[in-house]
């Protein structure tokens, strides 16, 4: 059976179109949102492996580098953190899992209007409200569980087998953005794709092991410390926590050690929305929001200049930690009070 039959019918046409656009590119710069998560890095790596298989040159770019907990992922080539010493002058761009230029980081966002202006570019993303940055093609599909899901369909449409490091990169995006096949976005199509990756040799339980069983003692200490400080608000319907710079320092932990913590707060019975504020510098806090069901935390993130998805959203607040916590608490309570208890 041809690989294309594995693509959900409604997505065959856009997948084929993107595969064709991808084939038309060479000397490609591949990028995703800053501070890449599993979906951003997995999608970038997968596109890199695809370009390699098609005999194209490419470079992966992410100004914040590869987070330590994802360093096990084989990349098609070294990921560059600066645009200053590229191995070639890019002639095409692939932008992934990113709905707006600012989220690519300042250097690339300004290059899009400068030295890269006019380059053919494609944008594959699943963020609602994504502004379609691709100059020669956009595939924005908010119903997709992960950008890597869409990239996988482009791979199949291009006639490439999703195996080896390409399959692992796709699985990484799928596993992480669905919270291990647990979020509401985990449709039958996601399971079918996971099965296909498995059939092509991907060891998904082994991948989960690499992701889940590599904690440092510092990370364990940080989570223990912050879990004791979770506060409930809005009659127990919201859970919030502020991680100060001092908390990280005292535990010897890194920012990336907070990845996944906000999801834990949702485990509390009765909690419909959870928030983690991470103090990045005095007066600057990164917000992470999670929710269940119809509770739309993206609407809260948007109030603070951020964005994301209904059940997972975030942004950056230029406020002192305590002020940011108060503002987010008030916004979450407004959201929840406007709704029946879920
Ligand atoms: P996280 O909490 O894991 O950092 O982010 C969850 C989701 O929120 C991400 O997948 C992304 O869609 C969105 N998000 C996080 N931070 C920002 C931000 O600063 N701006 C926008 N537009 N979206 C964000
Ligand atoms: Mn994503």
Question: How would you sum up this structure, described in words?
Answer:
The chain is α/β, with parallel strands linked by helices. It is built from twelve helices and twelve strands. The radius of gyration is 20 Å and the shape is globular. The mean pLDDT is 96. Bound molecules: guanosine-5'-monophosphate (5GP) and manganese (II) ion. The site of guanosine-5'-monophosphate has 13 residues, from β11 and β12. Manganese (II) ion (MN) is lined by residues 39, 97, 126, 146-147, 177.
Task: Provide a concise account of the structure shown.
This protein has about 350 residues and is α/β, with parallel strands linked by helices.
How many strand elements? 12
Biggest sheet features: 6 strands, parallel
- The main sheet orders its strands as 3-2-1-4-5-6
* Overall geometry: globular
Counted by DSSP, the helix tally is 12
Please state roughly what percent of the residues sit in beta strands, choosing from under 5%, 5-15%, 15-25%, 25-35%, 35-45% or over 45%.
15-25%
**What percent of the residues sit in helical stretches (DSSP H or I)?**
25-40%
Estimated radius of gyration: 20 Å
Distance between the termini: 44 Å
